[in-house]
Amino acid sequence: MKKLLTAAIFMLLSFAIVPLPAYSAVSQTPEEVLLIKKKKKAELATEAAKKKAGQKAAKKRDCGTFMQCLFGKSRGGNSQYASLKDKGLSRKSRRRIVDWDEANYAPGTLIVRTPERALYYVLEDGEAVRYSIGVGREGFQWSGNSRIVSKQEWPDWRPPPEMIKREAAKGRNLPEMVDGGPGNPLGARAMYIGGTIYRVHGTNDERSIGQAMSSGCIRMMNADVIDLFERVKVGSRIYVYQ
Fold it and tell me: Which of 95, 155, 165, 197 is the most exposed, having the fewest neighbouring CB atoms within 10 Å of its CB?
């Protein structure tokens, strides 16, 4: 019994002398806590910006097949562009994706900048598609805002009465209607601007792109007008600036 008591006392003394881990409470001031939060927020913002930049770069690199990279993708598929080749028309394009930081224009809006000879279609994520265009010649330029009220593929062309009269005075008789197709001055697609006689349309006269040669309509390369046609919805807002 005495031996057992001695052993118990020895074990208690052994536990008593084992050093315990030291804990120290480090207090932080409100200023230090705020600084840590700001640093963490900045790190998260930097990571998000890098991720977004990487996604944008990947999207621009991944344009698809060689022909899609050259002429651009169409939501209607390559058959849209094949129709141009079948009709003996050019499939050249003058469009590109650009950065866009004008937040007052909603995605899906069209902006025509006449002096720049450019039409912008606003995308999401701070980007836009920039198309080279032809605009109205001197005396036929205009400005304002409206909406796209209708869209047509391979549209028929009906010259307005004032144009027929004006051209007749020059000794040129215009037909009342020209069927849609390769010989039609409206090209592959047309988007009609509400409250006006004007359209955003294609053209078979590529030399007019970048020039002021039309009677007020906005001209585009056929491949580009097909691309825009697939993006634009009836009711989309359009702004024309001089």
Answer: 165
